[in-house]
């Protein structure tokens, strides 16, 4: 898992695989986006960014309001889908 957290390409691939697995289980796009938002909140509060890309995402997350964070979570799901 440490490689996944420290390498942004590996992180996107990891997320993409999880999004595809969720879709295969019949989880809706809205539910996936909601979960992505909740994971973003957890990461923001509990995990120190491991690379520059994660630091940028954290800074954007920190300055965003709830609506912007939800949009960012949906965009991360789209990015993950593209990298699965």
UniProtKB/TrEMBL annotation:
It holds the Pfam family DUF3243. InterPro entries: DUF3243 (IPR021637), Uncharacterised_YmfJ (IPR024702), YmfJ/YflH_sf (IPR038292). This is DUF3243 domain-containing protein.
């Amino acid at each position: 898992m440490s490689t996944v957290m420290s390498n942004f390409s590996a992180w996107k691939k990891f997320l993409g695989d999880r999004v595809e697995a969720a879709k295969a289980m019949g989880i809706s796009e809205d539910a996936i986006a909601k979960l992505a938002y909740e994971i973003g909140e957890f990461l923001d509060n509990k995990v120190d960014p491991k690379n520059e890309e994660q630091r940028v995402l954290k800074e954007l997350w920190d300055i965003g309001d709830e609506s912007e964070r939800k949009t960012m979570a949906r965009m991360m799901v789209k990015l993950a889908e593209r990298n699965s």
